[in-house]
Amino acid sequence: MVRALCGVVALDGPSGTGKTTAARRLATESNAGYLDTGAMYRVATLAVLRAGVDPTDADAVVEAVRRARMEVATDPAAPTARLDGEDVSAAIRTEEVNRAVSPVSAVAEVRELLVAEQRRVIREVLDSRGGIVVDGRDIGTVVTPDAPLKVFLTASADVRARRRTAQDAAEGREVSFEDVKASVERRDRLDSTRATSPLRAADDAVLLDTSELTVDEVTAKLSELADGRGLLGGEVAGMCR
Ligand code: DC
């Protein structure tokens, strides 16, 4: 029997917690959609960089983001990202984008634009598939505060940097562990201290420390939490209502 996820699972936390991999697995196993909101902020950042705009110039950033045509696919098997029709799935993972994404995503108007688009996509996927796993920093606090399951993932900085280094190496990017650790810590500091929608756990989120867990274990834990909330109800996709 194929069990389908019904409703929204909101997954938040800093980078390197295994959030994205586990979110995609959970969505795949439960026939749900998947939305990587971090990819949306990355596409917006790439648009800013390609427009030759200074990422700290808020007005120019908003203008560049408004002009950009951004699409992030919701199929967990192929969550491609597009900017003005071009597949930028690899181009949004460079160190240049890593450096600029925090200032761009700290701009309140950029967040307003992207949150509105995220809510639109979530509604569309709920209508078509019944369930979606949403991965980000402010999903449980801002984007879908009424999600029936919110999980906030954490892991030690060392573990997160090790995972990011391995991921970069696997995707052909040459980086040192020290540089990755510094980049991850810098981004978390900026994301957690910004004025608009800082990275934080919702009051009713389940906290999950993944430092000692494998991806399979994290996925199993998420699945167990979803089941405990009665969200793995449908027998096949589309049987949620
Ligand atoms: O998940 P990620 O590392 O690809 O996210 C990239 C950046 O986007 C992250 O440093 C902060 C920002 N972000 C955000 O501000 N809000 C979200 N919902 C998702 C990501």
The CATH superfamily name is P-loop containing nucleotide triphosphate hydrolases
Gyration radius over CA:
17 Å
* Straight-line distance between termini: 18 Å
Q: Report the average pLDDT across residues.
A: 93
| CATH secondary-structure class | Alpha Beta
The total strand number stands at 8
Structural class: alpha/beta
**CATH level 3 topology:** Rossmann fold
The share of residues in extended strands comes to 5-15%
In the predicted model, the low-confidence regions spanning at least 5 consecutive residues are none
Output the helix-strand order.
EHEHHEEEHHEHEHHEH
CATH architecture designation: 3-Layer(aba) Sandwich
How do the strands line up in the largest sheet?
Answer: 2-6-1-7-8
The major pleated sheet works out as: 5 strands, parallel
Q: Any idea how many domains?
A: 1
Shape: globular
Q: Helix tally?
A: 9
How much helix is in the residues?
A: 40-55%
- Write out the distinct hetero groups bound to the structure: 2'-deoxycytidine-5'-monophosphate
